[in-house]
């Protein structure tokens, strides 16, 4: 019995498993950064849709309508690739000579000097921005509806006290709308958490990719434990992980809702 325990302890603490455990930080970072950016983009999109200027309303409506209709996977692949190649093209205009371009045999980049080599940190940032852009469109719709739910009398009272339109927007309107927006934003947050399973599409060795690698059938004694297909066991760990994140998220949003609901009459937001 002690030999079995020692064996499994050694197996679960080998280098590959330690790397898998460390990759959980990528998922957490992408979710938190993507969620924060989604709120920022959502606020901007909702503000544009409520603007008195028609061009800004058009931009806000276009963002909310079009981005929501694009499949997550497509946008997740398109934006980082387009940004990377756009930066390489811009860099090529500065560092590539005609001779360098002529000597380049590959179709891209224009020359080797313009080859922008990205690592996990850079791809992780691009992934977070992609999540923020996609789910910011959903957040903008939620926030737009929440802004319309704020009682008109509160805004009129703020104007009567001499606040400017911008002050009414940021100091009263947006502050009051959170109690109406949080239920919808909690759903957006859960969608972002689920979308972090796509990180491996950006060459990030995330928890899903490592679970697939570690659980795949292995019949080579030289590379570790000989076992058949154990992927379902590793996926079960991920299943439990995402359930725990969901439970913690629900508690966190409940606490935030209680905090922002202080001083707001229940009949106004029920």
Write the layout of secondary structure elements.
Blueprint: H1 2-12, H2 15-22, H3 24-49, H4 54-69, H5 72-95, H6 98-103, H7 120-149, H8 152-160, H9 165-195, H10 207-215, H11 231-260, H12 266-269
Give a written overview of the molecule:
- This protein has about 270 residues and is an all-alpha fold.
- Helix 7 packs across helix 9.
- The C terminus is likely disordered.
CATH class: Mainly Alpha
How many independent structural domains? 1
H/E element order = HHHHHHHHHHHH
The CATH homologous superfamily corresponds to MetI-like
How many DSSP helices?
Answer: 12
Give the name of the CATH architecture. Orthogonal Bundle
Helix content: over 70%
* Terminal CA distance: 58 Å
What is the CATH fold-level name?
A: MetI-like fold
What ranges have pLDDT less than 50 throughout 5 or more consecutive residues?
Answer: 266-270
Q: What overall form do the CA principal axes indicate? A: flat
Q: In percent, how much strand structure appears in the residues?
A: under 5%
Largest sheet: none
The rounded Rg comes to 24 Å
Q: How does the helix and strand content classify structurally? A: mainly alpha
Mean pLDDT: 83
What is the count of β-strands? 0
């Amino acid at each position: 019995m002690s030999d079995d325990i020692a064996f499994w302890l050694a197996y679960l603490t080998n280098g590959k498993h330690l790397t898998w455990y460390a990759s959980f930080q990528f998922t957490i970072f992408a979710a938190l950064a993507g969620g924060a950016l989604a709120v920022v983009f959502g606020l901007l999109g909702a503000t544009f849709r409520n603007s008195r200027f028609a061009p800004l309303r058009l931009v806000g409506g276009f963002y909310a309508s079009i981005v929501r209709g694009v499949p997550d996977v497509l946008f997740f692949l398109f934006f980082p690739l387009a940004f990377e190649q756009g930066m390489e093209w811009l860099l090529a205009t500065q560092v590539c000579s005609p001779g360098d371009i002529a000597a380049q045999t590959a179709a891209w980049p224009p020359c080797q000097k313009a080859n922008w080599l990205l690592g996990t940190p850079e791809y992780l940032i691009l992934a977070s921005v992609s999540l923020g852009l996609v789910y910011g469109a959903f957040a903008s719709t939620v926030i737009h509806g929440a802004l319309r739910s704020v009682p008109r009398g509160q805004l009129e009272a703020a104007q009567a006290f001499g606040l400017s339109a911008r002050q009414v927007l940021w100091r009263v309107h947006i502050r009051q709308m959170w109690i109406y927006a949080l239920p919808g934003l909690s759903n957006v947050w859960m969608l972002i958490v689920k979308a972090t399973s796509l990180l491996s599409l950006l060459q990030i060795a995330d928890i899903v990719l490592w679970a697939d690698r570690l659980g795949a059938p292995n019949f080579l004694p030289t590379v570790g434990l000989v076992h058949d297909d154990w992927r379902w066991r590793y996926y079960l760990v991920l299943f439990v992980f995402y359930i725990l994140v969901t439970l913690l998220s629900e508690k966190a949003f409940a606490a935030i809702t209680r905090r922002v609901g202080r001083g707001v009459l229940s009949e106004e937001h029920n």
